Amino acid sequence: MWTSVEIGIDLGTANLLIYSKDKGIILNEPSVVAINTDTNEVLAVGVEAKNMIGKTPANVIAVRPLRDGVIADFNTTSSMLKAIMKKVSKKLGLSLRKPSVVVGTHSGSTSVERRAIVDAVSSCGVKNVHLIEEPVAAAIGVGLPVDEPIASVIVDIGGGTTEVAIISFGGVVTSNTIRIGGDKFDDLIIQHVRKSYNLLIGQRTAEQIKIELGYAPIEHEEITMEVRGRDLVNGLPKTITLHSSEIQKAIRESLLQLLLGIRLTLENCPPELSGDIVDQGITLTGGGALLNGIQEWLSSEISVPVHIASNPLESVAIGTGRSLKYINKLPKASIS
């Protein structure tokens, strides 16, 4: 007798993660697909495709089919999911069994966006698809008491969007989706380098700069990094030295908007739950939680404890996989 296979998918703008209840995280790859435009054939997905960004011939493009946490290109997303599910079925030996899948969606998503996710995942030949709101999944993944009447605040800083949600008794009490995430920081760094140094750098270089030199608005010891790109004046390769203080300045405005979104969500919190937030604090998840100094900066700005999830990049994926045991306990609004 086969037991049913349950997997959770975090369909992120930057990364796609798959969690199996028996093996934990079985796949963590960038949400990138390389396509031959002449034949529409998928040449690579994940890490292989990401390594091709900006380095392909004219008839091959490396694209990210998800933008701001939603499906921007349905056909490419379906192709990417099919290729990824092939990898997963090899790892899990799914040739004879169809899995039950839970996918995280952000809390502000429309019924059209949700339908697109269900259709894309269903096209991979799965048994059934459930959707769960990402903040609830992140809270389950972090191990917060989601099914109790206690306020848990999740700030999930992803690639395309940041979700701020107050969760109590298995559902989202109030939430805010801010269209700011890791990608926005990368874009701001590209603009800054272009404006200040007449140098053109790619997305991958910008991401590397963000990881090494990106700081929240706090005092810190200055660090530098050498960066290579193309000189916009003479078109030749050029190397410059960047400082962490200028990158901090470049992303500051977006971080302040993020702070405003967190404040607005806390202001809409019912008074009964505000006391819990003072005790429990806020939990940061998503790749943006790894930005240097963000925990220190947020706790000084909003005067409540701020914790970073032990594994911020994987929280949503772990939560989607574990949420199947909560399905009967959580309100229908959280899982559909």
Automatic annotation (TrEMBL):
Q: Which GO molecular function annotations are given, in alphabetical order?
A: ATP binding
Q: What is its main location?
A: cytoplasm
One biological process term from GO is: regulation of cell shape
Return the GO cellular component terms, semicolon-separated: cytoplasm
- Alphabetical list of Gene3D superfamilies matching this protein: 3.30.420.40
- Give the binding site residues for ATP: T13, A14, N15, G159, G160, T161, E207, Q208, I209, K210, G287, G288, A289, L290
Q: Which InterPro entries match?
A: ATPase_NBD, MreB, MreB_MamK-like
Q: Where in the cell is it found?
A: Cytoplasm
Q: Pfam families under this entry?
A: MreB_Mbl
Name the UniProt key words of this record, in alphabetical order. ATP-binding, Cell shape, Cytoplasm, Nucleotide-binding
What PANTHER family does the record point to?
CELL SHAPE-DETERMINING PROTEIN MREB
Q: How does it assemble?
A: Forms polymers.
Protein role: Forms membrane-associated dynamic filaments that are essential for cell shape determination. Acts by regulating cell wall synthesis and cell elongation, and thus cell shape. A feedback loop between cell geometry and MreB localization may maintain elongated cell shape by targeting cell wall growth to regions of negative cell wall curvature.
Q: Which family does it belong to?
A: Belongs to the FtsA/MreB family.
Q: What is this protein called?
A: Cell shape-determining protein MreB
Q: Which organism is it from?
A: Anaerobacillus alkalidiazotrophicus
Q: What is the lineage of its organism?
A: Bacteria, Bacillati, Bacillota, Bacilli, Bacillales
